[in-house]
Amino acid sequence: MTLPIADTGADAGPKTYLSGVQPSGLQHLGNYFGAIRQHIELPAREPAEHFYFIADYHALTTSRDRDELRNRVRETAITYLALGLDPKLATLFRQSDVPEVQEITWLLATTGGLGLLERAVSFKEKVERGLKPNIGLFLYPVLMAADILAYDSTLVPVGADQVQHIEIAQDLAASFNSVYGEVFRRPSALLSKEHSKVPGLDGQKMSKSYGNSLWIFESGKPLAKAIGKIATDSRPPEEAKDPAGLLLFDFLALFLAPSELEDWRERVRRGGVGAPGYGHLKQRLIAAVEERFAPARARRAELLADPAEVDRILEQGARKARARAVATRDRAFRACGLR
Ligand code: TYM
């Protein structure tokens, strides 16, 4: 299993883990290996409080279809449960079931400097890719900071693309605290050691918005079609190649045991008669994905047939999460004179 790298500068008090994923598309292999896998494995290993949520307020910065959003929220909850999140060990909830995060967002916005948001890389990237930005997209990191600070979180397991947002949360907490006293705790990012930046089928970062992602539960023909798209070149199997330069090996590394992975690498490096071609490697990858997620696919099918159970888990999660956020909101209101 992937051990997260040691965090630095974490708050020394009791540990609280928190993270969120947007329901703006189907969860993909980058979300799984970079984040969701940690969200599922950490609670079983680390006796501490764990909060994981579906960031539907954030998704509204790009979503425009209410039915699709509702379905994706449910699908995301089912994804977590099917992959093995234990609701007794971790609180799973919907972001918008805790409206207090919006109040905390406003408080953080009143003490945070504008320059923090102007430097946000993820906003700039989205605009450079042609997304017409709304105000919510610009404010996105403030809401994310409120998500983190509302639950007194100290450790935030995420992929590398979210690290700057967590630094912004640290700065926003520090600004508020410097004016009103110690209200918010200092959070730190927690990254997967090996998979904090999973590539997409085209070799760029895998992303819900780049059209280069592979859904965790993809299977059969659509899976084969997607893996067929992984970029290769026209060199023949016999030609000796450096596996480090092959995108296919970045994918195989997500699934194969180290000894098997090294075996394939060595055969590609050596080349010659009988060396595996790209087609062979893709077949191996397809089989590995099918096998890895087969049990979760079966659980997903069961959960799809039991919507009441999913609702029950989300409602229970919301009650627990909300109690924490209300306490933080009240503390922050008192500190700045609103109560
Ligand atoms: P989102 O929905 O873009 O991604 C969910 C999680 O998956 C990670 N991730 C990746 N990791 C490795 N390789 C990739 N290619 C890859 N793509 C995505 C992300 O880093 C993330 O951990 N802003 C957040 C949601 C959020 C949040 C929060 C997270 C809202 N409030 C508070 C933590 C704490 C987002 O859009 O994630």
Describe the fold and architecture.
With 339 residues, this protein is mainly alpha-helical. It contains 13 helices and 5 strands. Helix 3 (66-83) packs across helix 12 (278-304) and helix 10 packs across helix 12 (278-304). The longest helix is centred in the last third of the chain and has 30 residues, at 307-336. Residues 19-22, 30-31, 34-35, 55, 58, 144, 147-148, 156, 158-159, 161-162, 165, 196-198, 205-207 line the site of tryptophanyl-5'AMP.
Report the average pLDDT across residues.
95
Q: Over the alpha carbons, how many angstroms does the gyration radius reach? A: 21 Å
Tally of contiguous helical segments: 13
CATH-level-2 architecture of the largest domain:
3-Layer(aba) Sandwich
Helix content: 40-55%
Order of helices and strands: EHEHHEHHHHEHEHHHHH
CATH class of the largest domain: Alpha Beta
Cα distance spanning the termini = 47 Å
Overall morphology = globular
The description of the largest β-sheet is:
3 strands, parallel
Instruction: Bin the strand percentage.
Output: 5-15%
By CATH, the superfamily of the largest domain comes out as HUPs
Regarding quaternary structure, what we see is single chain
User: Within the largest sheet, what's the order of strands?
Assistant: 1-2-3
